[in-house]
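Aim 2, interim progress: modelling of the calcium ion-bound target.
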Amino acid sequence: MKQILIAEDERTVREVVRKYLEREGFSVLEAADGLQAIELLQHPIDLMVLDVMLPGVDGLAIMRHIRQKNTHPNHRVPVIMLTARTEEEDRITGFEVGVDDYVTKPFSPRELVMRVRAVLRRFNAETEVDHNAPLIFKDLRIEPQNHAVYRSEQPITLTAKEFELLLFMARSPRQVFTRAQLLNQIWGYEFYGDESTVTVHMHRLRDKIEPDPANPTYIHTVWGVGYKFEVN
Ligand code: CA
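Predicted structure of the complex, ligand included:
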């Protein structure tokens, strides 16, 4: 769940924004003044909505505080600044100190939520990992772009489903998946097979990729739950 920090001294504005963001599935932290905002910025935050006029430390000072230190845990956090119509100068300074977007007061909460989504989308697109990059685990190399798998540089021939299954699990190492989750993920909700389909494919996949299928290095059974990808 994405965590949003709203730093705003007007309680009613804070509460309306929180309500709208929570309804959209965000988790919200509230700061009523600048010092509280700085304190909460020590936590993992995905985006900050920052009022420029705050008691204590104002919005621009907070921006300088987080952006100028590469060591700050949130030095890259995307920020939407709230300003009043008359604060045009703040808007210009704001861009200079690394604000990503503005919303002018009074604003509609819906518009703010839209801006939050847009900024998060832009930010995630910039920082997104390359989905074509090979995944390397010990002797195993998975190449998503050409659907190829190698163990100790030897190519392994997998069926399309076996490959999808391996890639899906390898992208979330240590996460345990139930057979039902894997069935839905790889075969889709429209597939009328049962969970033994997963068991059968997993068995074949292990025979191909594991040096010793009876004592797996990569894919492990979590008894009573399902499977996980974890390199031993
Ligand atoms: Ca204010």
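The longest helix spans residues 109-127. The radius of gyration is 24 Å.
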